[in-house]
Amino acid sequence: MGNSESTRKLLETYYEGFAKKVGWESVIAENFEYIGGDMTETTPTIGKDAYIKVINRFSKVYQTMRVKKMVVEGDSAFVVGNYDLMFPNGVSMNGDVAEVWEAKNGKLASLRIFFDTLTFEENTPT
């Protein structure tokens, strides 16, 4: 199995579980690096447990998600995820998130996401 194929399988497992909000954690590396949520903060959140906490918070906002596009090249991938969101203030919307992945040693090793952070700030209590 080539790197592209194994990376694609990891992502398919991740997104299948992520859409169901269960079972996605198995493909995340213990030393996972995540950057997202604040475009001015480029210091990664480190560790599988730390990423699980991020997703537990995000799971309260997204209702459904689907992969619109996935491009895999070796250990790297680019995904456009489409999310139906319901914010705590009652505002609902649909939005795309650009997700840049790296796989290493049979696990997903890092993720960097890009999305409309202002909409999240305006609709999420501090």
Automatic annotation (TrEMBL):
UniProt xrefs under InterPro entries: NTF2-like_dom_sf, SnoaL-like
Positions of the SnoaL-like domain: 14-110
Tree of life domain: Bacteria
Gene3D superfamilies the UniProt entry points to: 3.10.450.50
Protein name: Nuclear transport factor 2 family protein
